[in-house]
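Hi L.,

You mentioned the student needs an example of a multi-chain input paired with its predicted structure. This one should do, with 421 residues in total across all chains.
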Amino acid sequence: MASMRDIKRRRDSIQSTGQITKAMKLVSTVKLQRAKGKAESTKPYSDLMYETVSNILAKSGNINHRYLVAGESTKKAVITITGNRGLAGGYNSNIDKLIINSGFNKDDVDIIAIGTKGRDFLKRKGYNIAKDCSDVINEPLYTDAKEICDELLERFAAGEIGEIYLAYTSFKNTVVHIPKLIKLLPVSTEDLKSEEGDKKVDTTPMSYEPEEDEALDMIIPKYVCSLIYGALIESVASENGARMQAMDNATSNAEDLISKLSLQYNRARQGAITQEITEIIGGANATG
Amino acid sequence: MAETMKLLVNTPDRVFYEDDSVTMVELATSEGEIGVFPQHIPLTSVVVPCVLKIHHGNEVEKAAIHGGIIEILKDKVTILAEVAEWPDEIDVNRANEARVRAERRLSAKDPNLDVARAEMALKRSLARLGAAK
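Structure written out for the whole complex:
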């Protein structure tokens, strides 16, 4: 049986770890509330944007637009959104796994890393990190999303990259976060339609000014941008949610361990006292 | 009471404006300035940086919007703007400086100048100034 001192030392160390995880949980709870509020205020914009784009595509049928057909290049740009910090359960590694299991050929992939955790992991695995915008995730702004989006669209238009993907963690609710890999460009009309499901497509005849082609030219960048921005905001909320959960588990685990160790400690203490008494009595009997 | 429609202005960060009793909306699209009354034909268009004027009968509210999409239905107008600001959120001095800078850049005729970008900057600053006036 471990000595009293060892048990006490172990218990104290677990206790201080427990205090840290508890504090971290409180911090991420506050951050989660804020991120959640932000995610909710972004939602109407991205929903409407989605609706508008799918309406245009649904009505204009099979137009041959440059954003709707894949480029000839086999290069794929993948935007990976992870955190800059760990201790968030599976949050970061889920995105890493998503990329590893995506079936993309390593040599064909340019990673646009947002978040140092994903960046470092993918770099170790031998992926090419084309751009690193890890500061963005601390406080994502719409202009950040726009900058990333503009650069990628330029490369897409120049034919350097054929497809653009986005890996992020979608925020369903406080406890459910789903890692997702979505295709940003070319916008596939099938995807938009199938997601629409049986939702009734608005059939009011709509006129466009300028013409559909030109309108798409201007609307799709905004659409992609709103997707990226939405993903950033949702990822931040998911990260804090995941961290909150992980820290909550860690704290309750620490509490369990402490109560177990306390029991052990008390037993050891009792054992030691009993032994001492037995020794004294033995000694007294021997002398008496 | 004149006929009214619903106006919804959304930006990525917030629902900027939502009201049911709008009688007319004025703004600029890539094809020119338009005024929208209720019962307008359905139209989707691209908004360029401009002053958005929201009419409630005789009262007019102004705001600066910086590019986006407008969807007009018979009784509802939805604007998805990248940035939207009320006059009291606009820093007039800064907007003025931006205007002067953009004008100088445009008049310098530098061959490397990104004209489209400078023009956008000029339009944005003009939209801000117009709304703040």
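You could point out the following to them. Chain B touches chain A through 24 residues (CB under 8 Å). Chain B has two domains: 5-85, 91-132.

Best wishes,
N.
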